[in-house]
Write a structure and sequence with these properties.
The chain has 299 residues and is mainly alpha-helical. The chain has one domain: Orthogonal Bundle (MetI-like fold). 74% of the residues lie in helices and 1% in strands. The chain has 13 helices and two strands, in the order ααββααααααααααα. It has a two-stranded antiparallel sheet. It is globular, with a radius of gyration of 26 Å. It is a multi-pass membrane protein. This is ABC transporter permease subunit. Belongs to the binding-protein-dependent transport system permease family. CysTW subfamily.
Length: 299
């Protein structure tokens, strides 16, 4: 025989009746509240992705794979992918290391100073694009203030901010604040008592980090590293403002094919964009697999 759930008080019975008497329309309120977000997500994310995917298979109003074949056969486009991947990887790695040291130091400073540094980091994370490139040109350009000062002191002989090293420096600069903001909550998982316990057991500072802290922070570090790579791979404004499109990056190639005066090939640009999306999706999938393994390993 089926047993009805027992209610311990009349108030619980009233709550059940009130819940059952709610109009059906109220059940759809959460979905209605999310509908503006879903609309804009479709408008600016899904729809452009569908347009790019469909048009990547078009050549002169005909369906073809020639755009992808041109990507495979073009050393210039492959060089753009290589340059973007190289700068993205190294800037993400260096930015992640510096941000990890920064966040670890933030945990040991007083509250007001910590809040001030976090607020400053939040502000600098939005300082990118053309203003960032302009600031670096003023400071480290051929006649920049810091460049002239370092040359006068004999520290450097020749530094070109418009080269690969200059781009790497700019990428590292805007990667650090983003990495710090993403890692800051993750460091709450570390307990200061763990380091004290490790020291009592005879572990050195580096042994504590290698065997305790880094394994705990590994999922956050991996996730942040992937986000930084995606952030760097899609950067365009800073590169274009600094080099004027003269350095071969994949985002520069896509923009030149879409808005170029001589080589206007939007379908080829769509194919390159699809390849870039697939690469980032594969990197993200690998990251999720590593995080899942780490999670299951702890349980």
């Amino acid at each position: 025989m089926m047993k009805w759930p027992s209610l311990s008080s009349p108030s619980e019975l009233d709550e059940v009746k009130a819940e059952s008497n709610k109009p059906k329309f109220s059940r759809f309120k959460p979905a209605l509240c999310l509908s503006p977000f879903a609309f804009f997500f479709y408008l600016f994310q899904i729809a452009p992705m569908l347009w790019v995917s469909v048009n990547s298979f078009k050549v002169d109003d005909e369906w073809s794979l020639d755009n992808y074949g041109q990507i495979i056969d073009s050393p210039f486009i492959q060089q753009g992918f290589s340059h973007s991947a190289s700068i993205s990887f190294w800037s993400s790695l260096v930015g992640l290391v510096i941000a990890t040291l920064l966040v670890n130091s933030l945990r040991r400073i007083p509250g007001r100073l910590r809040s001030a540094v976090v607020a400053f980091t939040n502000m600098t994370s939005n300082f990118a694009g053309v203003p960032l490139a302009f600031a670096f040109i003023i400071i480290l350009g051929a006649n920049g203030a810091v460049t002239l000062l370092l040359k006068q002191w004999g520290v450097i002989d020749d530094f070109n901010i418009y080269s690969q090293w200059g781009l790497l420096l700019i990428y590292i600069y805007f990667q650090i604040p983003l990495a710090a903001l993403l890692l800051y909550p993750a460091f709450d998982a570390l307990d200061d008592d763990w380091q004290s316990a490790a020291a009592l057991l005879g572990a050195s500072h580096w042994q504590y980090w290698r065997n305790v802290a880094i394994p705990v922070l590994a999922p956050a570090l991996l996730g942040t590293f992937i986000i930084l790579i995606a952030n760097a791979m899609g950067a365009y404004a800073s590169v274009y403002a600094l080099t004027g499109g003269n350095y071969n990056m994949i985002t520069i190639r896509i923009a030149s094919l879409v808005a170029g005066d001589l080589f206007l090939e939007p379908n080829l640009a769509a194919a390159i964009s699809v390849v870039l999306i697939v690469l980032l999706a594969c990197i993200t999938a690998i990251n999720q697999w590593l995080i899942a393994r780490s999670y299951h390993g702890k349980h």
